[in-house]
Design goal:
The protein is α/β, with parallel strands linked by helices and 251 residues long. It has seven helices and ten strands. Helix content is 29%, strand content 16%. The relative contact order is 0.19. Bound molecules: 2-amino-2-deoxy-6-O-phosphono-alpha-D-glucopyranose (GLP). 2-amino-2-deoxy-6-O-phosphono-alpha-D-glucopyranose is lined by residues 44-48, 75-76, 141-143, 149-150, 170, 174.
Amino acid sequence: MTPPHENPGLRVWVADDAAAAAAHVADVVARFVNETERPVLGLATGRTPLAVYAKLAERRAASAVSFQNAVSFNLDEYVGLDARSPHSFAAYMRRHFVDATDVFSGNVHVPNGRAQDLAGEARAYEARIKAAGGIGLQLLSIGANGHIGFNEPGTPFDARTHVATLAPETLHANRGDLPDPPPRQALTMGIATILEARAIVLLATGAAKAEAVRACLEGEPDVACPASALQGHPDVLVVLDRGAASLLTRG
Ligand code: GLP
């Protein structure tokens, strides 16, 4: 794999603060959507992208972007949570994307965490992505343990969409958004699925992500930091605030 400092396709942008970082990512997404006839987005949930969705909603309200031709595929969903559960990522997407923009709800795909046959749902999800032409722009954030989607440390880089067991630190980090008892598993795009996106933009903000960002960009690519798999991708933009960038040494 090409080391990050030798991979011209991997660029890092450090913004002054988290709001500026999110605004920059929203610009990248809006430009991609405006310039692409049938934009296929890969989308993420969690706290970090909330500011990106808020900016995209603002741009939609100002008619600066339209999602009417867009299709999207979310990275993951908790196993056992119904799409109607307020804790589900499906509900998150309705709140922060479908209800906030002009995207057609039928074009917003989230894996079905309640499928009887989860392996079958994983295969069908991959097939739906392929049928849509593949993901043009994938939005990612990163877990403090280096996960992307729900690909926890130890996940092979060639994994495709699969059922993942959530790491204890992930359950702890997400506890405020989860029911009691929390789901222990999730259906997630695999690292190989993510790497097939034609372009990737990863947003990380706050000092709590600094070590994961350092391992992602400056560590040897290794399953211990799933995000380090991005070093081998030809078109990755990493957008950080000063806190998330604070442990980087290569300038
Ligand atoms: C969840 C998501 C990940 C995301 C992570 C970071 O676990 N499945 O895709 O990267 O959260 O979340 P946050 O942005 O809330 O720190």
